[in-house]
Design goal:
The complex is a heterotrimer of chains A (273), B (276) and C (263). Helix content of chain A is 75%, strand content 0%. With 273 residues, chain A is mostly helical. The longest helix of chain A is centred in the last third of the chain and has 35 residues, at 189-223. The two termini of chain A are 54 Å apart. Chain B folds into 2 domains: 1-46, no CATH class; 78-275, MetI-like (MetI-like fold). In chain B, α3 (78-110) crosses α9 (234-243) and α5 crosses α6. In chain C, α6 (148-161) packs parallel to α7. Chain C has a single domain (2-262), classed as P-loop containing nucleotide triphosphate hydrolases (Rossmann fold, 3-Layer(aba) Sandwich). With 263 residues, chain C is of the alpha/beta class. Chain C has helices at residues 41-48, 71-78, 96-101, 110-115, 120-133, 148-161, 178-194, 206-212, 235-242, 247-262, and strands spanning 2-10, 16-25, 29-34, 56-61, 64-65, 81-84, 166-170, 198-202, 215-220, 223-228. Chains A and B meet through α1, α2, α3, α4 and α5 of A and α1, α2, α3, α4 and α5 of B.
Chain lengths: 273, 276, 263
């Protein structure tokens, strides 16, 4: 450092500093800010914000709450049957959904499928992912009637949306060398799939299956609300009969069951990886 | 399948005795046990479930029949569907913004390194768990009872549900920050609030933004069902059309939902790339 | 002037990291603290600005006893003590200027800190100091875009922004390559002269310590066992500081430490 020793008491030159903005162009920045403000003002103004209605609603909410306390497990046998049905729905829909996901994932993998098949596979996944399970459940309830069958079909679709998507992405990442080696050895299409692709995607597949079982258990409690069987149906019946303390007890049991299954599946998945 | 390889000399001879198996015995038994377990679970489920086998046989016909009734989509109600889609979009966006605002202080409470004391830590965690455990539709039922039917109840329901998701991921981000800059700011004599401002916020902003975009994407889907319990959005006309057996309108609505969700996903992916 | 008397620090019930340590730093000087890792150098520096809470003893800086300060009076004391870190401890995602200005956080009100509206004299001081160490042209760059030596200069400027009465440097060159190390040591020495500051430097590299400081303090087992001019640090003294202590004496030293911790 060969600079001259500066006097710390000397007044330094005046200079300004401003934090550089995320969007350097001021016109663009301000118009974006304006756009966001206008959007929120407009969106909020479209809301039906009725104070009188809320004032009426608050005592109603208080009534619901006081009706719900203390939670009362009046008919434990109903809750038990509901939970068992939910469990069965989750098991069967996971088997069905994951079983269907594997071929769909192969269809939707860019590196393995011919273009038209690829587009079909992607289309199935997009449709399955776009709809909330409750919407799918309503449609199935209309088509096949109330009960667990609608629940199983709904959650199978739900499983495809997630498992097939993740699996297809995994297939697209496989090590291509192994596939070429088998093709060079003269193996046919399905043999190649079984020996070169399946072993590479198996660990991911197992993790996804456990995760999806967990999600299905959770979702099957919800689709019951629209008539697709399980504990959700029990909950909805209690709610419709203004049996709020029973409904609250069921809600607490659902929460406990979900936390339990989350803990178990988390443990298993940690063990696997 | 029996591994007789142990007592076989390793020389080139004796090839006739040798058997090969892909998995060690222990692995194999685990596999058998897991397969058996799945089989039993499937058997138990099928055997006990309350489904008439005839219905199962009939299901493909019924589903095909529904499809036929749905096509072709009826476009005549497109304007009201479009405005309902916009309302759904608004519900998801406003609820996400409100959810982010509320979940930031909750995340601050629920993170071990920022929470003032043990009581506040537990308060934060209880808020997160209860928000996450109750489904959007159940929150919506509750808020429709309070606020009456409409988008307001829907927004609050989605917001309540989002707090748990956002708050959990945000508090994890806060717990993972680098301590070193915080130490430097303490040494400078900065107060607690200034340390949050300079030491913590700049470190967690990228995660907060990513988590917000992700949740917006999820909320877009969630807000399509609010209308089924009267909490606004596209679900309202969907339920109405189903109840009046207007299946061709239903298929238009379903297509509109797909379009919205796909566009939302593309926008979310673009934003993520832009910001990261 | 810094005066440390009978300083003791123990973590939990385990043996003391610092035991009955006394040190005086009168006025402007550049002092190196050497010693093997685990000797307590880093703990000593952090006790001075109370990043580490001393178990007993007193630390006085220019007549103010630092050991019992709490809350805002502790922050007022800390803002007069600059600290430079081995890992630079910058806020990576903020700009160099924001990191530099964060040295004023003990002085400015919250709204100024939040809006980045610092007083003009702080901005002037920041530019002046950044020019002094040669990083002014990086003012609007993000801190993580800089090289190690440049980042450490930001750390030094941040500490000087505090208008410190003393500078503490904890292994300031340990993360740098040899050439940059020498530059940073040279910088610390000349800043000590320019601003008439006492500078305490923890350092592994004895060669650099001898070259750039006027006084060397050797630590072992939480106590000072050498204190003198760089020229006095001969081979024997080095052995004493680093690995010349026989096992029996080592146990004795620990016995003293335990007694001090109990008392």
């Amino acid at each position: 450092m060969s600079e001259p020793v500066s006097n710390p008491l000397a007044p330094p030159a005046r200079r300004t500093w401003r934090k550089p903005s995320l969007i350097p162009n001021p016109a663009l920045r301000w118009s974006l800010i304006l756009l966001v403000i206008v959007y929120f003002v407009w969106a909020l103004s479209t809301l039906p914000f009725d104070w009188n209605r809320i004032q009426e609603g608050l005592p109603r909410a208080a009534r619901i709450f006081s009706g719900a306390f203390p939670p009362d497990l009046k008919r434990p046998e109903l809750v038990f049957t509901g939970l068992m049905e939910t469990l069965r729905i989750a098991i069967l829909s996971t088997i069905l959904g994951v079983g269907l996901s594997i071929p769909i994932a192969f269809m939707a993998a860019r590196n393995l499928a011919p273009k038209p098949v690829y587009l079909l596979g992607r289309g199935i996944i997009i449709v399955a992912r776009s709809f909330h399970p409750i919407i799918v459940a309503i449609l199935f309830v209309k088509a096949v009637g109330f009960g667990p069958l609608a629940g199983i079909l709904t959650l199978a679709i739900y499983s495809i949306g997630f498992v097939a998507k993740m699996l297809a992405e995994r297939i697209e990442e496989i090590n291509w060398g192994q596939v070429e080696a088998l093709r060079a050895a003269g193996a046919g299409y399905f043999i190649t799939l079984i020996y070169a692709v399946l072993p590479q995607i198996m660990p991911r597949q197992i993790g996804l299956t456990i995760y999806q079982f967990d999600s299905n258990l959770r979702a099957s409690a919800v689709v019951g609300i629209v008539g697709a069987g399980g504990i959700g149906a029990t909950l909805m019946n209690a709610f419709r009969r203004y049996d709020y303390d029973f409904a609250f007890a069921i809600t607490l049991i659902i929460i406990a069951a979900i936390l339990l299954s989350e803990a178990i599946s988390g443990r298993i998945r940690r063990k696997l990886w | 399948m029996v591994s007789a390889a142990e007592d076989t000399p390793m020389a080139g001879m004796g090839a006739a005795h040798r058997a090969w198996s892909r998995h060690s015995p222990r692995e194999r038994w685990t596999r058998y046990a897991v397969t058996l377990l799945i089989g039993l679970a499937a058997y138990w489920s099928i055997y006990n479930i309350d489904i008439d086998p005839e219905w199962v046989m009939d299901a493909p016909v019924q589903i095909a029949d529904l499809f036929i009734r749905m096509s072709p989509p009826d476009m005549s109600r497109l304007p009201s569907i479009a405005s309902a889609i916009v309302e759904t979009l608004n519900i998801a966006t406003i609820a996400t913004v409100l959810g982010v605002l509320v979940s930031m202080p909750v995340a601050w409470l629920a993170a071990q390194n920022t929470t003032p004391n043990r009581a506040t830590l537990w308060l934060g965690r209880v808020i997160l768990v209860s928000s996450r455990s109750v489904n959007t539709i159940i929150w919506a039922l509750l808020f429709v009872a309070i606020f009456g039917p409409g988008a307001l109840a829907g927004i609050i329901a989605i917001m309540f549900r989002s707090i748990g998701f956002l708050g959990k991921l945000m508090s994890e981000a806060i717990e993972e920050i680098n301590r070193a800059p915080i130490e430097a700011l303490e040494a400078v004599g900065a107060s607690r609030m200034k340390i949050i401002l300079y030491g913590i916020i700049p470190q967690v902003v990228p995660t907060f933004v990513a988590v917000t975009i992700l949740r917006w994407d999820i909320n877009l889907r969630e807000s399509t069902v609010l209308g089924l319990v009267g909490a606004g959005g596209i679900g309202l006309i969907l339920q109405g059309s189903i109840d009046t057996f207007a299946w061709q309108t239903v298929s238009t609505i379903l297509l509109a939902i797909i379009a919205m969700v796909v566009a939302g996903e593309a926008l979310a992916a673009w934003l993520r790339n832009k910001v990261m | 002037m810094l005066k440390i008397s009978n300083l003791v620090k123990c973590y939990g019930d385990s043996k003391a990291v610092l035991s009955d340590l006394n040190l005086e730093v009168p006025g402007q000087s550049c002092i190196a603290i050497i010693g093997a890792s685990g000797a307590g150098k880093s703990t000593l520096l952090r006790c001075i600005n109370r990043l580490v809470e001393p178990t007993s003893g007193t630390i006085e800086l220019n007549g103010v006893n630092l050991t019992h300060l709490q809350g805002s009076s502790l922050r007022m004391a800390r803002r007069r003590i600059g600290m430079i870190f081995q890992g630079f401890n910058l806020i990576d995602r903020l700009t160099v200027m924001e990191n530099v200005l964060s040295g004023r956080l003990g002085y400015v009100p919250f709204w100024r800190a939040a809006l980045r509206k610092y007083p003009q004299e702080d901005i002037d001081r920041a530019f002046h100091l950044m020019e002094r160490v040669g990083i002014a042209h990086y003012a609007n760059k993000r801190a993580d875009e800089l090289s190690g030596g440049e980042r450490q200069r930001v750390g030094v400027v941040r500490a000087l922004m505090q208008e410190p009465e003393i500078l503490l440097a904890d292994e300031p060159t340990a993360s740098l390559d040899p050439k940059t190390s020498v530059q940073i040591m040279e910088l610390l020495r000349s800043l000590s002269e320019e601003y008439r500051l006492p500078v305490l430097i923890n350092i592994h590299n004895v060669q650099e310590a001898k070259e750039f400081t006027q006084r060397i303090v050797g630590m072992r087992f939480g106590r000072i066992i050498f204190d003198g001019l760089p020229s006095d640090l001969d081979a024997e003294a080095m052995d004493h500081v680093y690995d010349g202590v026989p096992a029996a004496e080592r146990e004795d030293a620990q016995g003293v430490i335990l007694r001090a911790a109990a008392g």
